Amino acid sequence: MEGQEVVANGNNNGSLKLKPSSSETRGKNIQCKAAVAYGPGEAFVLEQVIVHPPQKMEVRIKILYTSICHTDLGSWKAENEAQRAFPRIFGHEASGVVECVGEGVTEVKEGDIVVPIFNGECGECCYCKSWVTNMCERFGVNPMKKVMDSDGKTRFTTLEGKPIYHFLNTSTFSEYTVVDSACVVNIPPQLASSLKQLTLISCGVSTGVGAAWNSANVNAGSTVAVFGLGAVGLAVAEGARARGASKIIGVDINPDKFIKAQAMGITDFINPRDEEKPVNERIKEMTGGGVDYSFECAGNLDVLREAFLSAHEGWGLTVVLGIHSSPKLLPIHPMELFNGRRIIGSVFGGFKGKTQLPHFANECIHGVVNLDKFITHELPFEEINKAFDLLIAGKSLRCVLHL
């Protein structure tokens, strides 16, 4: 393809920059490879698409790495009818280099290394100006959104000019993507050599670790239960471990996950299928009445109830991270909240992306959180369908695709 190529800066500091090729691409259409989904659950089609230039307050990014999350899986399957917008380019965990910027963009420039984020931060709305929330009025997480905010159009089209829809403000299953500047995090250039690992802070690791640090504020010596030991659940465990939790109980129906979970901080493991009594009763026995913090990472209402009842009366906090596509409501009677237990939801781990993620990236690379433990597979981008098969089979935490 014509465009620009990513090369080492040559100054031994690990940074990256874009080296112009024979054809300047700034402000022009780019033809590149993308994985396009044409229907719910249909295999991804690797084909050439047109990526249009960024408009006002937009950024076009050359994607170097992207990974696959359960949110991609659920949305690709269109588990919620409202998600049925096809053809579509999925993907929301990635890292890359800024290829060009649209009018008005000042926070990033061509050649900067970045990660896109699905939960943006415009910095101007009342949500962004409040430190009580990490929501953004205009660019918050919205899995139903399928076009760009500025003009209601797509930046992807087929070679014949037909629109291809966006996903979660990011659409990273493409060699190039266009995102709103509110959804781009500038990564310190000294961390460029770790860009593959930093792909994971676009979603899963930030969501889990942040839930432990920001949403729950896990304290040293506290007890924790994590329901669902996928990547997000294990990131919660990693965050609780880093905070000095004394006991971290992992709950999952797959016993094979315990070996990996031990390396992430899980101290005890419960398989509900092996228990004769409800899991919450078992946890109460193990902890003297319940855990200080429970995290529901499975997206299952029955699991959510067990997580809630596992929290200690008087002060126990349950944090909901799982994606619940069912229209069913919370399985909690209002009077059950009068015994001191609390329940909250957490989006993107409570992180304000543009403001706080650069510091978190630095903490990860310096060992506070071990990102390498989450990468179980690496494949070329062309094998994206195989990567989805690994996730569906429960064999991978994060499979990183190299573009």
From TrEMBL:
<comment type="similarity">
    <text>Belongs to the zinc-containing alcohol dehydrogenase family.</text>
</comment>
<dbReference type="InterPro" id="IPR013149">
    <property type="entry name" value="ADH-like_C"/>
</dbReference>
<keyword id="KW-0560">Oxidoreductase</keyword>
<comment type="subunit">
    <text>Homodimer.</text>
</comment>
<feature type="domain" description="Alcohol dehydrogenase-like C-terminal">
    <location>
        <begin position="231"/>
        <end position="350"/>
    </location>
</feature>
<dbReference type="InterPro" id="IPR002328">
    <property type="entry name" value="ADH_Zn_CS"/>
</dbReference>
<feature type="compositionally biased region" description="Polar residues">
    <location>
        <begin position="9"/>
        <end position="24"/>
    </location>
</feature>
<feature type="region of interest" description="Disordered">
    <location>
        <begin position="1"/>
        <end position="24"/>
    </location>
</feature>
<keyword id="KW-0479">Metal-binding</keyword>
<protein>
    <recommendedName>
        <fullName>Alcohol dehydrogenase</fullName>
    </recommendedName>
</protein>
<dbReference type="Pfam" id="PF08240">
    <property type="entry name" value="ADH_N"/>
</dbReference>
<dbReference type="InterPro" id="IPR036291">
    <property type="entry name" value="NAD(P)-bd_dom_sf"/>
</dbReference>
<dbReference type="InterPro" id="IPR011032">
    <property type="entry name" value="GroES-like_sf"/>
</dbReference>
<dbReference type="InterPro" id="IPR013154">
    <property type="entry name" value="ADH-like_N"/>
</dbReference>
<feature type="domain" description="Alcohol dehydrogenase-like N-terminal">
    <location>
        <begin position="56"/>
        <end position="188"/>
    </location>
</feature>
<dbReference type="Pfam" id="PF00107">
    <property type="entry name" value="ADH_zinc_N"/>
</dbReference>
<keyword id="KW-0862">Zinc</keyword>
